[in-house]
Amino acid sequence: MAGSSVLRSPVAAMLRPASELAGPPGLPVHRDLADLLPWPRLRPGTIIGVTSRAPAGLTSVVLALLTEASQAGAWCALVGAREVSPHAAAHVGVALSRLALVPDPGDRDDQVTGALLEGLDVVAVRTGRPVSRRTAARLAGKARNRGGVLVPFGPAATDWPDADARLDVIGARWYGLDTGRGLLRHCRLTVAATVHGRRREATVWPYGRPAAAERTAPVISLFNRRDVKGGDPGAGHGRTVSRLG
Amino acid sequence: MRVMVVRCPDWDETEPFEPVVVAVEAHAAGVEILRPGLLAFAAGGPAAYHGGEQAVAERVIDEVAESCGVECGVGVADSLFAAYLAAHRGTVVPEGGTSDYLRDLDVSALGRPELTSVLRRLGIHTLGAFAALPAASVADRFGADAAFARRLAAGEDPRPPVPRTAPPDLTVTVDCDPPLERVDVAAFTARALAVQSHRLLAAHGLACSRLLVSATTGGGAEVSRVWRHDGALTADGVADRVRWQLDGWLTGGLTDGTGIVRLSLAPDGLLPQGEAQPGLWGGDGSAEARAARALVRVQGLLGAEGVVTAVPDGGRAAAERFTLVPWGEPREPGARHGRPWPGALPGPGPTLWSEPPAPVSVRDAAGDPVEVTGRYLVSAPPATVQWGRNPPVGVAEWAGPWPVSERWWRDDARRYARIQVRLVDDRAVLLFVENGRWYLEGSYD
């Protein structure tokens, strides 16, 4: 053919083809959560259950799980979480253009979750009722076949069969308020991960870590310790104590 | 929108269509070619100018007959599809009468033989009966293309042409040296350019439903034409259209023998590739296409409103900062996005919002209700918060009140104040007080 094709715009030179997004397998994950998982990335085909024994922190951890993946261009969905605020999701760092919300799947939640796993990369599902072993196996199969990550969260996620990892929020503390002054700014979560029977703990700051000066605020809340040693406030003597087993 | 379609029956695709386009353009602007033998334009402007749609139709028919010696049929309706069918009979479908017009037509009019035979077996013979089926069930059973066809049958204008201006960097250009003069060489160039355009769009996850073909002749003249398609164009589709257009220009004597020295393709009517309706580029297994199929399937289960995406909007309350639009609609930021909102709280918002706001009771250390004065001062520091049937929970820390005064110049003016509270059980909540009553706006979970 005669002539040559020309792309003149400098913008064109900066754009990368989508294929270059494919790096090492798996999706990037929030750095604090990467410490907890046995893999530094969200591994395709896995199930990560998220629960909370603390009075707060569940939603923040689920949103934190979606941040890096959605920013890297992965397609994410949040199912059955009508009350979750997109504003907060954006603040944690979720790319909203990559997040599909299915606020009200009703009693079709299993069917919807299955359909989403056919095409999306990360599917977070709020579970109100225990899932049957058969349904769990079907969803796990879909996640494995299609390379999706399934994140059941909420009370019933505790007993989710075949979960590859379980994250449990065991302590939550908000910082920034004072008597009549200040503003909620940082949230420190203590999250315990159980992977194949092995347990580890880490601190997660979903909204970023406070600067050093701000950290002089009280860091130890007795109520963080509530779940350790049978829910006895004050147990643990101000240190993080892992429950064994 | 009123659409006029001009159809030349039994048009031979190898025949240049350009002369007909030129003839129609004598009476209408913004002509879009659907395929050789078929073109469309918005009827509103020409009808106002010539005094009615009927008058425009007559002028167009006369002009095409006179300057090209070709007979054509003209149809007018509220949707492109209906206007196309009307053009077969030379009908002007009255405004608002489009769904009535479509109701009794046979399902074969959809031009989808497989779908037609399925529908016939189900006992559905007319477009009206097809349109009466629930949209969600159609999408679920028969897939996205059938859902699209159902919308056509219902007289809706299909969504895809969301006109967005193509960024200049998506335009592909080829300089032809020596100039293009022969149709067979032009076909070769068209093919290469189409593939290049296709690759560039696909790399950005986009597809186009409209294509602007422009050429510069050896004599320095510039010409261009718009080709439109209902749905995303495939690479082959683009190549065909470029070839047809070049054919028209070269055989129509446009170039005066100087040939075409530069050719460019500007995709328009851009669709995110995944959201494109029937006929994705090549129907590949890209992540976007897979995600789109999964989401369309869920929309089939729950209805279009069942899957939404959050688009930023402006506002002070957490619930006002985003609007939820059905997945697949354009993500245009709300009109109020980006404006300053005095009274909006900085920092992380509540992760869970309470909809509607739940009434709560806020008391001070003495057990008296906490009040906020007209000058936004609290009567006493809050000591406990209680909602539902739960026992009161102690307040560990709190901040505020932050005043909000909305639309004070209007009848629906709202004036309220908010406080952030960290409870002793480590929950954190956002409360507001309006007309002396406290409510839970959201919680920081």
From TrEMBL, chain A:
<feature type="region of interest" description="Disordered">
    <location>
        <begin position="225"/>
        <end position="245"/>
    </location>
</feature>
<protein>
    <recommendedName>
        <fullName>Protein RecA</fullName>
    </recommendedName>
</protein>
From TrEMBL, chain B:
<protein>
    <submittedName>
        <fullName>Protein ImuB</fullName>
    </submittedName>
</protein>
<keyword id="KW-0227">DNA damage</keyword>
<dbReference type="InterPro" id="IPR050356">
    <property type="entry name" value="SulA_CellDiv_inhibitor"/>
</dbReference>
<dbReference type="GO" id="GO:0006281">
    <property type="term" value="P:DNA repair"/>
</dbReference>
<dbReference type="InterPro" id="IPR043502">
    <property type="entry name" value="DNA/RNA_pol_sf"/>
</dbReference>
